[in-house]
Amino acid sequence: MLRCELGLTGTKFGCGIGVCGACTVLIDRSGNASGRPVADQACVKRIRDLEHAKIVTIEGLEGDLGHALRTAWIEYDVVQCGYCQSAQLMAAAALLMHTSLPNDGQIDEAMSGIACRCGTFPRIRKAIHRAAELWCLKRQHGSTPDILCRKDSKAPP
Ligand code: FES
Ligand code: FES
Q: Which value, in Å, is the radius of gyration of the alpha carbons in the chain?
């Protein structure tokens, strides 16, 4: 539905049976604008069960959080083949919506449902820490330039 009928091809199709996580999107079933969505697998959802839900795909990952994640992903050169990365970004967004400064264990748990055959997990973890920092400082200081958000002056490895 997302890819073939709505043309939202940023969401990838992998296994189709709820195992690989490549199809992860944000789903908000709260029915109001203030709800916090969860990351979930689109391929095993039935449309009739999502009648009043709000669904956000990678195409809709915008605003300060989306910018923080994209900035961090680029800084840490996270992407390899890229196939899993839409899902990784959506899961990271959901994590930061619920836990503003997650530790390594919380990151690993939140990202554990999405396979990455290229082994980008170490860079994903670093990028999530960086995105959390950027997003947090953005909320505290408005339009704080990125250079002031760094804890140190070293470029990411
Ligand atoms: S495509 Fe693998 S979990 Fe959905
Ligand atoms: S970047 Fe290739 S599968 Fe994750």
A: 16
Residue type, 21: G
pTM for the model = 0.87
pLDDT for 125-142, tens place per residue? Answer: 999 999 999 999 888 876
Query: Coil, helix or strand for 85?
Result: helix
Distances (CA, A) of 145 to 17, 135, 138: 43, 12, 9
Cβ–ligand 1 contact at 81 (below 6 Å)? no
Distance from the alpha carbon of residue 147 to the mean position of ligand 2, in angstroms: 29
CA distance 105 to 111: 10
Q: How many CB atoms lie within 10 A of CB 109?
A: 12
- CATH class in words for 61-149: mainly alpha
